Structure formats: structure tokens, C-alpha cells
């Protein structure tokens, strides 16, 4: 993917030269950036609603990169993280990756590798946010159903016929047909498979 103008690449590093270097590289490729000198500044000022990713230094005075990662996990702030460090610490890298970091790069950073990681991270963040929005939409649509319609919808999703649903619920087949029509309209779907997917969300 090319640089997404709706995304922001956050850079958190206590080294001003590193911040400026990364900012220059990314903006030259069309990315919007936001730089922070430390983790606390990031936590205070960053807008979690804006998609993107986080380039994060491991070793910083005060709150370290790993500590910030833990705080973001606790806050359920799932911004993809690309760790950078001047030290090749295998144990630290493994720990960071196990906790969900996308990549772990050693300084001096390979520009091409970093740009590839940023593209992947931002793409992943957009997909995650899109999935969340679809889930919210699904819950909103399902909430429009009455209790009886929800009962019918679950059986429709299982592939049962109107007659089978009527027997299962102890209601008339014509009533099932009425409910079924209402369900399709409210859920904005056309097939039992679509109903199944909505209920699964």
C-alpha cells in the first residue's frame, strides 16, 4: 500500500536526531508523522482515534518502551508497534513480539525494512478498526430484532426451513414467514449465511 493520508505514524524516542531522521524519511514517502520525546508525552497527547502505527524506542529514561507497551495493552489501545533499539537484545525482542509488537528493528535502521514494516502495521490497524466497525454495525442491527425474531433468526442461520422452525418454536408456519421477512429487512441481508455471520459477530 502507499502512504495513507488518513493515518499517522507516531514516533517515540528520546533521541532528537533519531526522531527527526525517522520523521524526514517517512514524510518523504508521504506519511504523516507525530513525534514524541518520551512515553509520557505520547500518553498525554496522542489521539487514539486516528489510525496508524507506533515506532517506539525500547530504552528511554522514565517509562521505557516495554513499559509503554504494557500500559497500552492494559488500556486496550491496540495500535501496532514497531520497536527500535540500539542494542541487539534477543530476549527483549522475543518478549516484545510475544506481547504483540509487529517488528523489532536494530539501529542503525534499514530504511527499506522500516518502510515495509510501517506499511504492514498501518494496513493491519485499518483492518482491525474496520472489523470493529463491522461488529458494532452487526450488534446494532441484531438489537433491532424482537426476542421472537431472534429465535427465528438463529434457526434460519442454522439452515432450517420455515416448517421446521414452526415445529421447533411451536408457532404457525405463516408466522415464521412473517418473522423471516422482517428479519431480512431489519438485518439488511438476503441469505441465511449473512444472518449467521451477523449473529456470530
TrEMBL record:
Entry keywords, A to Z: DNA-binding, Phosphoprotein, Transcription, Transcription regulation, Two-component regulatory system
InterPro entries listed in its UniProt record: CheY-like_superfamily, Sig_transdc_resp-reg_receiver, Tscrpt_reg_LuxR_C, WH-like_DNA-bd_sf
Sequence ranges assigned to domain HTH luxR-type in this UniProt record: 138-201
Domain named Response regulatory: residues: 8-122
Keyword field contains Transcription regulation: yes
GO biological process assignments: phosphorelay signal transduction system; regulation of DNA-templated transcription
SMART domains: HTH_LUXR, REC
CDD domains per the UniProt record, alphabetical: LuxR_C_like
Source taxon at top rank: Bacteria
Residues with PTM 4-aspartylphosphate: 57
Residues annotated as signal peptide: none
An MF annotation (GO) of this entry: DNA binding
PANTHER family: DNA-BINDING TRANSCRIPTIONAL ACTIVATOR DEVR_DOSR
Protein name as catalogued: Response regulator
Source species of the chain: Parasutterella muris
Amino acid at each position: 500500500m502507499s502512504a495513507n493520508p488518513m493515518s499517522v505514524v507516531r514516533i517515540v524516542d528520546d533521541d532528537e536526531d533519531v526522531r527527526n531522521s525517522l520523521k524526514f524519511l517517512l514524510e518523504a514517502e508521504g506519511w504523516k508523522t507525530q513525534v514524541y520525546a518520551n512515553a509520557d508525552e505520547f500518553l498525554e497527547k496522542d489521539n487514539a482515534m486516528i489510525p496508524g502505527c507506533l515506532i517506539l524506542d525500547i530504552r528511554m529514561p522514565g517509562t521505557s518502551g516495554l513499559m509503554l507497551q504494557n500500559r497500552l495493552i492494559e488500556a486496550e489501545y491496540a495500535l501496532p508497534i514497531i520497536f527500535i533499539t540500539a542494542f541487539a537484545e534477543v530476549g527483549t525482542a522475543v518478549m516484545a513480539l510475544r506481547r504483540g509488537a509487529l517488528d523489532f528493528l536494530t539501529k542503525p535502521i534499514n530504511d527499506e525494512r522500516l518502510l515495509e514494516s510501517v506499511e504492514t502495521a498501518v494496513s493491519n490497524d485499518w483492518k482491525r478498526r474496520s472489523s470493529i466497525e463491522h461488529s458494532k454495525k452487526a450488534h446494532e442491527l441484531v438489537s433491532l430484532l424482537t426476542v421472537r425474531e431472534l429465535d427465528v433468526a438463529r434457526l434460519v442461520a442454522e439452515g432450517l426451513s420455515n416448517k421446521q422452525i414452526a415445529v421447533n418454536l411451536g408457532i404457525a408456519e405463516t408466522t415464521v414467514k412473517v418473522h423471516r421477512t422482517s428479519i431480512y429487512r431489519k438485518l439488511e441481508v438476503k441469505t441465511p449465511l449473512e444472518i449467521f455471520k451477523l449473529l456470530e459477530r
